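Quick start: what a row looks like.
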Amino acid sequence: MNGNGSITIEGLTTLLPNAILLPIHARNKGPIYRWRKITLAQSKRPRYQQWLAERANTGVVLGRASENLCTVDADSEEGVELFLALNPTFQQTLRSQGKRGCQFWLQLEGDYPHNVVKLKTNTGQGWGEWRADGGQSVVRGVHPDGMQYRLLCDLAPIRIRFDQIRWPSDLILPWKSTPPKEGRASPPGASLDISDRIRAYLDMADPAIDGQDGHGTTFRIACALVWGFALDPEEAFPFLAEYNRRCEPPWNEKELRHKLDNALKDPNHQKPRGYLLSERRIPAPRPIPNATSEPTKGWDECLHDGMCSSEQLGELNIVPPKPILGDWLREGDLGFIFAQRGIGKTWLAQDLAHGIAEKKNVGPWQIQAQEKCLYLDGEMPPGDLRLRDHLLGQPSRNLTYINHEILFERTGRVMNLADPDFQKGVLALCVAECFKVLFLDNLSCLASGVDENDAMDWEILLPWLLQLRRLHITVIFIAHAGRNNQMRGHSKREDPAFWILRLDAPLDTTEGRLGAHFITRFTKWRSIQKPATYQWSYTPPGSDNEDICVEFKTANPVDIFRHLIESGLDTATDMADEMDVSKAYVSQLAARGKKEGWLDITNRRYHLTNA
């Protein structure tokens, strides 16, 4: 260990001889390598060791792959102190720190939870994580916030049984099952764990609003928790507290606990306790919105109910959209990924789907939330779809595909987003199965009969997309670029989009090179800052690697400059605004282009000589 607490690759190998180390870019937490499939033997190969040496950060695979190496991640100094007081022997185990708190590294013996679990207190406050199979932890390099990862104790991980670990009394421990109670059912074949099922149910529930039977609305939610999901009032309270944040005004703690107690004692329950646990699908507390249904009120009443003064608007409890990936993808967004054919947009789209479903970073973009994804594929052969899915990540219950050929073989039906019945079917499926991110690959294949150059034809899809947004379902379209390198079709479709991501081939692309290689550049965004431009490389298995290798780096400014000219920008002012650089720097790029013979400058306007 160095004087500042950091450690070298050689030191890590000595300290953790049976652990798989992962190459990671500086100020990043996401490995560049598809690490969930790599073995210890593969990680010892010279090419892989070279990758480790070239990358500033290093992570460690956890769980069985690294001979049962696991970590307990405590987020705060108070949590660390209490955990050490309960487990004094942990003073003598490997401990590392990033921004705050620390991670305790342990070599587990016997059985233990083979997953990654977020740990919370019984008040719903985050405490940390248990990390095992499916997880990895960064132990060396520079944290995304700029501080150095360091070792607080550089001793080897101690060997311990999981049942010997002592936990704070106020933690909710998911691996501790409660004894079965009378009338309490377990969810046979459920596709979500109990917490996900409950939160999915609450997400579809209307908030309680004063003057609109707010008591009855909240009491029905309390009944669903303690009767439908068969929770004790103490178990149900954190979920009801989450729901309470959306109520206007929120209830106090005493009122919430009183409603839970009364819900448990209510003699008027019509169904057996635990009935929501045995449902394969989660029933919505309210009907799915339907744009074609008959209104229950006249427009005069509806408009009156929808009025909101400036003063009332300021007092509303508005819940901001939940971030999903980076600072540019949020729940309820409508986004487009477009490129010329063969650039790699489907590689990126499937990688995004795996990242969101498996809760892992995608290149430089940090994952913020794990969500269930539905991927409608209207173009790929099933074999190609399966191969890419296999290369890009582990099989995940949170990622579901509907492939056009498989669907036709099984049902004789063809997907068409212009069909109102198909729109209703997709909407109902998303709600029933709790899909929160919908990928549509691609727009041309999935929207038959829609003239993409006719603004009015887009109106066929717009009401359906608005329904999805109101249900907080994120929609990502994959689309083709036209001959002018702009997204094909009428610009009206771009109006409701929160972001648009363009892919271009890098200038140094080699003919016949395997995989996908492209530059990502946002042409529309609603985040505070414009997301950075990156160059990506997806290299499939070959002689040098047995697994797909995904690498990214900040894009070459010359490449960005040329692509902007192709997009129609031709002045230093426009270029500087788009690239977020000075006009002097743009002039330097232009001078280089003119010297190399690919740029012509006429009346201070830029033109590619081969354009």
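That is the whole record. Residues 177-192, 286-294 have pLDDT under 50 and may be disordered. Residues 227 and 273 are 5 Å apart (CA to CA).
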